[in-house]
Amino acid sequence: MSPIWSVSVVSHGHGAGVARVLCDLHAQLQTTPHELTLTLNAGEDPGFIADLPSTLRSRLRVVRNTRPRGFGANHNAALLGSDAAFVLVADPDLRLHQAIFDPLANVLSAPRCGMAAPIAMDERGRIEDNGRSLVTPKQLVRRHLLGGRGPEHGPGQGNVEVTWIAGLFIAMRAEVFRQLRGFDERYYMYCEDVDLCLRARAAGYSSLLMTDLRIEHPARRRTLRRMDHFSWHVASLSRLWRSPAYWACYRHAHDKTD
Question: Cross-referenced InterPro entries, in alphabetical order (predicted)?
Answer without folding.
Answer: Nucleotide-diphossugar_trans (IPR029044)
